[in-house]
Every structure is written in structure tokens, then in C-alpha cells.
Design goal:
Blueprint lengths: L1 H18 L9 E6 L7 E7 L3 E2 L10 E2 L5 E6 L6 E7 L5 E6 L5 E4 L9 E5 L1 H4 L1 E9 L5 E10 L2
Parallel strand pairs: 1-5
Antiparallel strand pairs: 2-11, 3-4, 5-10, 6-9, 6-11, 7-8, 7-10
Length: about 160
């Protein structure tokens, strides 16, 4: 009986932790954009960070995010564009970027754009045509103001 209760307690605690992880749901803000709209960079403001540690959620990455995506971008007219670039800038903290692409694959970056700035380049129609969910987190447990920039490219 004690083993069953212990197993049940572990199962309940794990399911609670999973609920606190990044979840594929409608973003806090949603935008419908075309490849042409994004050919000139579009910038969106966000408060980066959250109380959900990615490593505790089974990701092999460091950072803290909110459970719900910060943004859901519904992209269309991407046919002539081969790349979507997503960048984050902040003047006050070390940000991370987590993306669930249109094909449901996960992408993460910390500082590849230099100076504590993450950037992710998605190549190909399968990744850039449809719904793209974006989480802007922080490397540590603090939150800060940040900007997300999306831009399409012909290559």
C-alpha cells in the first residue's frame, strides 16, 4: 500500500511540473503576418523571463520562461522567402529564445547573436509557414523588458 501511495504522489508531482512547462497554447499576443510584412523587420515588446525552469521541464537548456507562449505568429505568403530570422534584444538582462516552429519542432538559443542576445534562423517552408510560438526567457530568474524582431529573407 505504501508503494502505491508513493508512486501516486510521484505521478501527481510530475504531472504538476509538466503543467508548469512551456505549453503549446495560444500566445499571450497573436499576430497574423505575411512574408512581405516581415521583409522589413517587425519588432514586438515583451517582458522576458518567467518562473518555469527549462531544465526542470526536460529541455537540455538553461533559462526561465512562462508556460504560455509570449507570442503566436500565424505566417502566410512565405513561399518566396526561405528564411525567418527571430532575434531578441534587451538592455537590462541576459535573454534566451525558445521557439516552436510551424512543423512543431523546438528551437532554442542563448547568445549566438553576441552580447547576451539570442537569435534563431528558421530555414524552409515547413518551419516558417503556419503557426510559430515564441517564448522570450531569461538566463537567470529575473525578468526584464525586451524586444523580439522578426524578419524574412530570400535565402
Amino acid at each position: 500500500m505504501r508503494t502505491i501511495l508513493t508512486a501516486t504522489a510521484i505521478l501527481v508531482s510530475l504531472s504538476g511540473a509538466a503543467m508548469a512547462c512551456p505549453t503549446i497554447t495560444e500566445g499571450r499576443a497573436s499576430y497574423s503576418v505575411t512574408g512581405e510584412d516581415l521583409y522589413s523587420p517587425n519588432t514586438y515588446s515583451v517582458v522576458a523571463g518567467g518562473n518555469h525552469d527549462l531544465q526542470s521541464c526536460g529541455f537540455n537548456h538553461t533559462g526561465n520562461v512562462i508556460a504560455q507562449p509570449d507570442f503566436s505568429f500565424y505566417t502566410s505568403g512565405m513561399g518566396e522567402y526561405g528564411r525567418l530570422e527571430i532575434e531578441v534584444t534587451s538592455q537590462s538582462c541576459d535573454t534566451i529564445l525558445l521557439v516552436n516552429a510551424a512543423d512543431a519542432s523546438w528551437w532554442y538559443d542563448d547568445d549566438s547573436n553576441g552580447e547576451l542576445r539570442p537569435a534563431i534562423d528558421l530555414y524552409g517552408q515547413g518551419l516558417i509557414s503556419g503557426r510559430i510560438d515564441v517564448w522570450v526567457g531569461t538566463y537567470g530568474s529575473t525578468t526584464c523588458n525586451a524586444n523580439v524582431e522578426l524578419e524574412t529573407w530570400y535565402n
